[in-house]
Amino acid sequence: MLTVEELTAAVDAGEIDTVVLAIADMQGRLQGKRFHAPFFLSEVLPHGSEGCNYLLAVDVDMNTVDGYAMSSWERGYGDFAMVPDPLTLRRVPWQPGTAMLLADLAWLNGEGEVLASPRQILKRQLAQLAGHGLTAYAGAELEFIVYRDSYEEAWRRGYRDLNPANLYNVDYSLLGTARVEPLLRRLRTEMAGAGLVPESAKGECNLGQHEVTFRFADALTCADHHVIYKNGAKEIAAQEGMAITFMAKPNPREGNSCHIHFSLRTPDGEPAMAAGDGLSRLGEQVLAGLLATTRDFSLLYAPNINSYKRYQPGSFAPTAVRWGRDNRTCALRLVGHGPSLRVEHRAPGGDVNPYLAIAALVAGARYGIEQQLELEPAVTGNAYQDASAPRLPTTLRDALALWEPSPVAAAAFGDEVVAHYANNARVELAAFDAAVTDWELMRGFERL
């Protein structure tokens, strides 16, 4: 991490010549500008910058699409203000002479913050949680698959017949992870140089699948670190002539998960969800709130059409909205003891926008606390076989049908945010419904 004074000294010494100012878009991607460092210090840091407001109103391909109230051809696609957050300033070890920081978004006409901005959605949830005298902490376990093809080669080949970095299941295998250790080592050490706190790297089940984990942090810092790591990991892989994907379900094998560990603390830093080795009354309310809101908030946990392909019985991805202690068949897994007690939400995949998912966790926790919900008994067996359990939606269309009319979502996030992200889902569904897939060609080209 860097202070402004340290950045100024590094610029004066010729160590840093470029500063990246970034925002997180609806898909959780970093968008922004690269500034000449002296100009950034003299102009951008005190006054901010601007970006086209279509950055929160486009699809994955950056196409302008209809249906957004905040940004359209009728409104002229103007700019919003990018307001630098100096507390996020850091070096970028994988890019020579570069520092970066994140920005929040505000309207240039003085109408305040951009409500649909993912980072600000999370910040508003955290502010409301603070009204209960509580602070949220989170840690994300983000999986990815490594291919020995470059991103350009993968694109030209239509992402078919790629070469995974491992040819068999390397879950926990030291021999298997050694094949990819040069890349994994760069991810660990260079993210540490960017102010993140790496813990470990391990192999996973899918071919070429791995995971690098980082120490938990306050909820906003966790989400900031997530988007910086995800973007940086792709940049580092590209420099190595490789490609990695965080896609939730890139093939029929195990998908890429992003289990999010979540807990609450009091203002003096004491765990609020634990009582001895079990849950406190507040902890029970938090889990009950998460269970009660998971279906309605699924659009934030699983934002893409592909996200729902993960939810298969016996796949280590959840299907039942149940909780259990150290039970990986449930959507909510209670782990840890005493001060380390926390809930692991297993619905998010590697494609998740962390700001939105953690905002959903905070909103669900608040709902349980405010409604003083009672917690149902824990599942001790196989939740996949619990026929009475509420189920995660199995398609984006089903998730949209739960999200858009939900009074709980409206109360938690506001009508503008609900409508904005509902439109995002409709845009994706319309694009998918119009597409001709490989599956259709294989089944129908000759035989139908």
Overview of this protein structure:
Helix content is 34%, strand content 21%. It has helices at residues 4-12, 37-47, 118-130, 151-156, 174-178, 181-193, 219-239, 281-293, 298-301, 354-370, 396-403, 407-413, 415-434, 438-444, and strands at residues 18-24, 30-36, 49-52, 79-84, 90-91, 98-107, 135-147, 198-203, 209-214, 217-218, 243-245, 258-265, 274-275, 278-279, 320-325, 330-335, 342-345. The strands form three sheets. Strands 7, 8, 9, 10, 11, 12, 15, 16 and 17 form a nine-stranded mixed beta sheet that branches. Helix 3 (118-130) packs antiparallel against helix 7.
Label this structure with key terms:
alpha+beta; 21% strand; 448 residues; globular; 14 helices; six-stranded mixed β-sheet; nine-stranded mixed β-sheet
- Judged by helices, strands and strand pairing, the structural class is alpha+beta
Q: How many beta-strand segments? A: 17
Q: What characterizes the major β-sheet?
A: 9 strands, mixed
Radius of gyration: 22 Å
Q: Helix coverage percent of residues? A: 25-40%
From the spread of the alpha carbons, the general shape counts as globular
What are the low-pLDDT stretches, counting only 5+ consecutive residues below 50? none
Overall mean pLDDT stands at 97
Distance between the termini: 60 Å
